[in-house]
Design brief:
Distance between the termini: 10 Å
Structural class: alpha/beta
Largest sheet: 7 strands, mixed
Shape: globular
Number of domains: 2
CATH architecture of the largest domain: Alpha-Beta Complex
Strand content: 25-35%
Oligomer: single chain
CATH class of the largest domain: Alpha Beta
Number of strands: 18
Length: 333
């Protein structure tokens, strides 16, 4: 089979790879669509020591079952899935917080991912979807669930409901765009997105109907927002988030561009700021997201770019050089 393989920093190649073996309790999927995630780009740049050259990346997928050793899933059934492979028995799993599973592994990190014609995955990780749902839309389940999990979690901490809050989203990539679209669906009227890429600013303005600005050219509005989502996670965006948040507000930290930096602990303390981190999604989030995507809660998704898997190297290069207007590129094997 053909697979897009991470071969060295800043390089992926379309290579021949053996078809995945079918193990007990697993299925083999024909990948119908697979998105390029920011974490895939992080690995592509050589910045993720967990993802080593020779690995097939990709974890935002939809596919069709072609072989199965599961009684629940039959050949020909269309599915998406949870790329986190969890144990099901640790405290977090039994609490319904399986995103925090202490024994988790992951598709596209600890085992070959979905940038391939075929991929194996435990049947327990599959998520049912409407059989007539477009494959590209279903492949957005994973990033959209990340936005849903973060917003639902932080909304519980806000002093007032989301429709009454002024919100700043730092980063107009896929998570920022999907967060803006979901906030619109939830009735939030006042959304501002900070994004340095002009093409992405234009896309966010058009599809999420949000005000945008270039953070390199305009200073963040100090104490201007009830709710801030940092979808980048750099030293500079963390500083901007803490500067922008009003006293008593909530900062939701999603991005992980930089793994560590100082923040304004004085303001965090004296202004009673709630600073929250979030990691991916639960299985319940994924199921809820499939339903929302299928119902159109995230809009028509016309901003999503599609390219053949064979052009995957070009897609990665375009994203690296900021040539891609879309916040999300989906590859079609």
């Amino acid at each position: 089979m053909k697979a897009l393989v991470y071969t060295q920093p800043n390089e992926v190649q379309l290579l021949d790879r053996p078809e995945p073996a079918l193990e007990a309790g697993e299925v083999v999927l024909k990948i119908d669509a697979v998105g390029i995630c920011g974490s895939d780009m992080h690995a592509y740049h050589g910045h993720d020591p967990r993802r080593k050259p020779g690995l097939v990346l990709g974890h935002e997928f939809s596919g069709t079952v072609v072989r199965s050793l599961s009684e629940r899933y039959r050949e020909g059934q269309r599915v998406t899935g949870n790329p986190l492979i969890t144990c099901g028995i640790c405290d977090y799993c039994v609490q319904g917080r399986n995103n925090l599973c202490t024994n988790r592994t992951m598709v596209g990190m600890t085992r070959p991912g979905a940038f391939a014609e075929l991929m194996s995955i435990p049947a327990a990780s599959l998520i049912d979807m409407p059989q007539d749902m477009p494959a590209v839309h279903a492949a957005l389940t994973e990033p959209a669930a990340t936005a849903l999990h973060a917003i639902n979690m932080s909304a519980r901490m806000l002093a007032r409901p989301l429709p009454e809050c002024r919100t700043l989203i730092i980063g107009g990539g896929a998570i920022g765009m999907l967060a803006a679209l979901l906030l619109r669906h939830y009735g939030a009227p006042d959304i501002v997105v900070a994004e340095t890429n002009a093409l992405r600013r234009s896309s966010v303005q058009k599809h999420a109907r949000a005000e945008t600005y270039d953070a390199r050219e305009r200073a963040v509005e100090e104490n201007g927002f009830d709710y801030v989502i940092d979808a980048v996670g750099s030293k500079h965006t963390r500083e901007a988030a803490l500067k922008a948040i009003k006293p008593g507000g909530v900062v939701m930290h999603i991005g992980l561009q930089d793994w560590a930096s100082e923040i304004d602990m004085r303001k965090l303390t004296l202004a009673e700021i709630t600073l929250m981190g979030t990691y991916t999604y639960t299985t319940a989030d994924l199921r809820a997201t499939v339903k929302l995507l299928n119902e159109g809660a995230f809009g028509d998704l016309s901003w999503v770019a599609q390219m053949p898997l064979a052009d995957g190297a070009t897609a990665f290069s375009d994203l690296h050089h900021g040539k891609q207007a879309s916040a999300k590129v989906v590859l079609i094997p």
